[in-house]
Specification:
39% of the residues lie in helices and 19% in strands. It has a five-stranded mixed beta sheet, with helices on both faces. The protein has a four-stranded mixed beta sheet with strand order 1-11-12-10. The model has no long low-confidence stretch (mean pLDDT 93).
Length: 408
């Protein structure tokens, strides 16, 4: 049995997530697009979310790993129509196109259930697929509108029907336009090799690998994404059942290990173990992390690896927030050293609240002030803001030091 220290597990996680080592932004647009697609392949899933403070979460994920590529370059890479598709994974996620077949198990799940939370208006299904066939890819607005009323939950029959077709794989989303999904037919956007494989069967009207093979494949991909993790960590990448992961993990290339202090069985990707055996003390990125970043979206795992309890407070009443509406952890020196709640204010990135990690004496953790200042400056530059301002700092004794590292 391979034994890993807590630090080795943390380094393996950072390496698997593409957050170790400097990555200069490529100069050519094509190389920039390729770097984003490669990153997506390594992560396996990039979560989408409607909240946009500095930028949307899927843009922040690429920025954290690849630096200042430019937001337009990131969007162009995700939505080029060939390399990725959008589907239900950890949540609504951008996923590598080559993994489309392995979500047949989820498409079958929806087909067996018959609906998600809305009853499906059967009369709309045929008309939508026929329009897509005749007119090409369309948004919900172009299909007839998404809502019956101003209430966010009051979907139109068209919206319910096209989302159901997406659930069961009768339509596919490979692009967004103005943050609207663009729906298309799988025969136009999914390569034939990914739709037509000898030996695949039909179950519940869904063609593709059987459920067991899908779960085995996604278990393996989840293990590669986390680098080292428990069955729960691995399951969380694509929201599989923990028991399903345990049932299939022996048939993957993942290697069982022990991690000091975890008290749970764990598995590591062979690539992460090989890297640990040969790597020097590679520097980690210094960057702000989206709260929806796959490194930290599992809060129990985040606390176990980084010793930082954290929650998303965007849905918490303002008076009860501890760290702020969109508090972004700061990664520096292979540690999470602070949280920053950012906002835009004129031409400035305003840190409304900065909470620095401290030791038992209440002294900021090593590198916390310097790392936070650097992360704020780089993020401001990336989104085109001219300066950084800082409002509240905890502990307040560190406020002057932090502000002194930021240009006037």
């Amino acid at each position: 049995m391979i034994e890993l220290s807590g630090d080795e597990a943390r380094r393996a996680a950072l390496w698997a997530q593409g957050l170790l080592g400097a990555r200069p932004a490529p100069e050519s647009p094509r190389k920039r697009e390729e770097s984003v697609i490669d990153m997506l392949g390594d992560l396996g899933a990039v979560q989408l979310d409607t909240i946009s403070v500095l930028a949307r979460s899927h843009e922040l994920v690429a920025y954290a790993r690849l630096g200042a590529l430019g937001r337009n370059a990131v969007e162009a890479a995700y939505w080029n129509g060939d390399s990725a598709f959008e589907y239900w994974s950890h949540a609504a996620c951008i996923l590598p196109m080559e993994e489309w077949p392995w979500f047949a198990f989820r498409r079958r799940h929806y087909a067996r259930k018959g609906e998600r939370w809305h009853g499906v208006p059967q009369a709309s299904l045929t008309s939508i697929t026929e329009r897509l066939r005749l007119e090409g890819p369309l948004t919900t607005r172009e299909l007839g509108g998404a809502k019956k009323s101003a209430d966010w939950w009051d979907w139109s029959d068209t919206k319910i029907a096209v989302e159901w077709l997406l659930d069961i794989g009768e339509v596919v989303v490979t692009r967004r336009s103005g943050w609207r999904r663009v729906y298309d037919l799988p025969e136009r956007v999914v390569p034939p090799a990914l739709r037509q494989q000898t030996g695949w069967g039909d179950a519940d009207g869904i063609h593709g690998p059987d459920d067991a093979e899908c779960l085995r494949r996604l278990t393996e991909l989840g293990g590669h994404s986390v680098g080292v993790g428990t069955a729960g960590d691995i399951a969380d990448i694509h929201r599989l059942g923990v028991n399903d992961v345990k049932a299939h993990i022996a048939d993957t290339d993942l290697i069982e290990v022990t991690v000091a202090g975890w008290g749970q069985r764990a598995w590591a990707s062979p690539q992460a173990l090989e890297w640990l055996g040969t790597a020097s003390r590679t520097r980690s990125r210094t960057t702000l992390l989206s709260p929806f970043d796959s490194l930290i979206w599992n809060r129990e795992r985040m606390e176990r690896i980084f010793d930082m309890p954290h929650r998303i407070e965007a849905y918490t009443p303002a008076a009860k927030r501890v760290h702020g509406y969109f508090a972004m952890p700061v990664l520096h020196g292979r540690r999470l050293v602070a949280r920053v709640d950012p906002a835009r204010s004129g031409g400035a990135l305003m840190a409304k609240r900065v909470t620095l990690e401290t030791d038992h004496r209440g002294v900021p953790a090593r590198g916390a002030v310097k790392g936070t200042a650097r992360a704020l400056q780089e993020a401001a530059s990336w989104v085109g803001l001219e300066r950084v301002t800082v409002d509240e700092v905890r502990p307040s004794s560190a406020a002057a030091s932090l502000r002194s590292l930021l240009p006037d």
